[in-house]
Amino acid sequence: MPVAKRRRLRSIIAADSAAVAVSVTAADGLAAVSEQVAFAPLAPEWLSRTILITCGWLTALYVTGAYESGYLRMRGRSLYLTALATALAAAMCAGLFYLLPAWRMNRLAFGAFVALAGLLLTGNRLIWLRWYRPDKTGAIIAIGDHELLLTVWRHIGDESRLPRILWLVADRVYTAAELARLTPDYPHRVRMCSVERAEEILASDGGTHTVITDGIIRSEGVANLLTRASLRGALMADPFSFYEMTTGKCPIFAVDGRWVFNATAHRLPPSPLLCKRLLDFGAGLIAGVFALPILLLAAVAIVAESGFPVIYGQRRMGRHAKRFTLWKLRTMRRDAEAATGPVWSPPDDPRVTRVGQFLRRTGIDELPQLWNVLLGEMSLVGPRPERPEIVAELRRRIPLYMQRHAVPPGITGWRSINRGGDTCLEDVVESLGYDLYYAKNFSLKLDLRILLRTWQMVVAGAKPQARRRPRAESVAGEEGRPRVAAEKMAAGRPQPRG
Hints:
Blueprint: H1 3-35, H2 44-63, H3 69-72, H4 75-99, H5 107-131, E1 140-143, H6 146-159, E2 166-169, H7 176-182, E3 190-193, H8 195-203, E4 210-213, H9 220-231, E5 235-237, H10 239-247, H11 259-262, H12 270-306, E6 311-317, E7 323-329, H13 354-362, H14 369-375, E8 379-381, H15 388-397, E9 410-412, H16 414-418, H17 425-440, H18 444-460, H19 472-476, H20 481-492
Helix pairs in contact: 1-2, 1-5, 2-4, 4-5, 6-10, 6-20, 8-9, 12-13, 12-14
């Protein structure tokens, strides 16, 4: 995160902390006046109570996504999340006062506290929006094999709407026709420059610069340029690592058999897996208890519309290609696959019932999978498990598709929060990069980040960010420039993990 962005985030957190503390102080003063008791705002008990309430309020703002930089810049969404966090924090405070009667406020003081805190937090967001200024974005300078660098840049353009210009360091100036041949889709986003011009760009004060290099020193000028870029604090990355940082995916167009030996997912130490299993069991058990009333209501609605059965099981493929039965609430007609067999479900599938549409839209149909989590067949976070019939087709058409089974499957995952569900083979091809990225970067920290983002999406009603679909030949790894780029990368330096 850029320094300026961190500074703005800290400033609004500090302002929110002050708003909650001021609200607690005002509410306690009002309670003291109404009850005619002494008010000691600096007493140790009062300070500990205020700090705990403030931390709880900030936690509510965080888990609802009110501190997400994208939401902070959207007036309507920011105010909605602030109101939602206020309601959540008020419920938390009510529970705290019930457990600790000595800290309790009377009804008048509690109402004034919640109202004042909500108003002050809303004012903080409006002031932040008034004084917000976009970050300065530094230049992106590419040094190395032009075909490799431009191939990666082209795929980044396919995957995201990155508006920045790529400065390609070259010993000679390319003609317009040559540049158009190298970048047929995005010639306006690539500019050629000399080593001297690249040094001038690095010396400019335009934010944090990024240098993409394949690591091969081709001249003394390039060596000096890389040294100066490192000393100036520029972000240094190889082309494929830069692709991962930009898109949140592994470069499918460059993944080959060496990924099997380099990816960390194939030699995970037992400690993170044990912690993941304990987290899955504890959180799954708690979530299952709270989900029981929802499941009962959903079962009644399903039976009322289309009769039994309510729950059905499907064979799916889990970690290490082990098969298990996945449980879901029935959302389709009972004879949905009688004539077609296992097929993809399009967005407007006519086989889905009206109740099923609601269950799918809210994710309630996935709640029975908590039983799979308790049994250890699934995890809360991981790649979505597929049916063996579909896996057989996918592993035949997509190279290294089975590597996604190196980690346990999950109810939600990195793909789910970035893209959503799959409705056809092309979607699976595009989503495979997210699954391999998760398998490569598996950690409990990433799991908690995914769970938090999933919660924010459910609460805020946000949808996964849709990305432009890459060309089929680039992703599938067929003959063409992507494969040539991968070979040149491997020849120049060791292949990065993933």
